[in-house]
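S.,

Sequence below, as promised.
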Amino acid sequence: MAGNNFSWRAGRRAGLFTALALALFFTGCATTPAPRIPLDAIPAAQQSRARDNLRVYAAVWSHVTDQFYDAGLHGVDWPAAGRKFGALAATAPDDRALYALLNVMLSLLEDRHTYAFSPDLAEAKRTQQSALTGISLIRIEGRWVVEEVMPGSPAEEAGVQPGWLIVTRNGRPMDERVDFRPAGGEIVRWEFLDPQDRIVPAALTARPVSLRSRPVVRTLPGGFAYLRFDSFNASNRRWLGAQLTARRDAPGVVIDLRRNRGGGSFSLATTVGEFFGRSVADGTFVTRGGFRLDVSSWQPGSAHYAGKVVVLVDSPTGSAAEIFSAVLQEHGRAKVVGRTSAGAVIGSDYYALPGGGELELGRYDYFTPNGRRLEGRGVVPDVTIPRTLADLRLARDADLEAALRVLGVPPE
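The prediction came back faster than expected:
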């Protein structure tokens, strides 16, 4: 069964969660057996590992078959995929290879909320620590660029700077899509191109780095407030409420959700509620069986902030952060500035896998209060600002400049 760990699904009262839970209960656990994979061709010394691999593979395949939000599985021939990847999974020599294969299989579903976490990544998710080199990348003008360097990371210690271009990683050019997760102690050899077009090599040893980031508040010209937080969780929810309460007289606020990938359902509903004097519609969630749940904001303790609001978004903005942006946009409560968001709002549950891994599985579709489906489309800003390499290298925040113009702050 699911771990009942609702990723970002919104709920207004306990009764709403109960209704959704009951609807999901009747969908049942994974019961359809995976295609049988014979072990006859596998050497006897490797069969113990193969059997362990196939238990993980079978759990993943069956959960998807029975519980993925789209009963048609996006048109994928799932039994054929199971036969192909089951045979490959049986021969995987270790967890890293096994989960890489499973995620290639899951990628056929084209759902960014469906992913198999290996045991070490599942532990990193629980502890909010992961082996990292410490750079965040963004695709600008057809090139991979360092967008941020994590404080206290190997990259910061090596002097890596935002705006550096990626030339190679481990001797190879970067692909258009990136999904690499170094193991602890792994040496990742980068080649960067600095603003003077000089090649800068760096061998960065991945080590555990905290994934928790501190929210940011500062006062902008004209008495406006800037508030940034990177996930919708309990601590950030309380922080935001306190900041808005303390700044009720501020003429406006900029809520920076760039790189915010979402979070918890209750935090989403509560955060929406901070900006309204009454409960408002947050949208509708739909299960595989067609159960529809209309949800609303959560008002108790709300700051009832009444000033102007601008929300900053970009392509990594996902899940609850997208829903928040869309809800305030559709209710006419905020202007959205930046670039179209990720379009990754399918709600997910988590399932324990044999051996300590975890499966995140997309189970709920979402529609905005006006009936828009955001999945694959994202939130389109009211004011679109292109991201340029020149701005990044000059540390110029064109999004924030645009937000201040929307708020009516004259340029300096």
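The chain has three domains: 14-127, 129-210, 216-346+363-407.

Coffee later?
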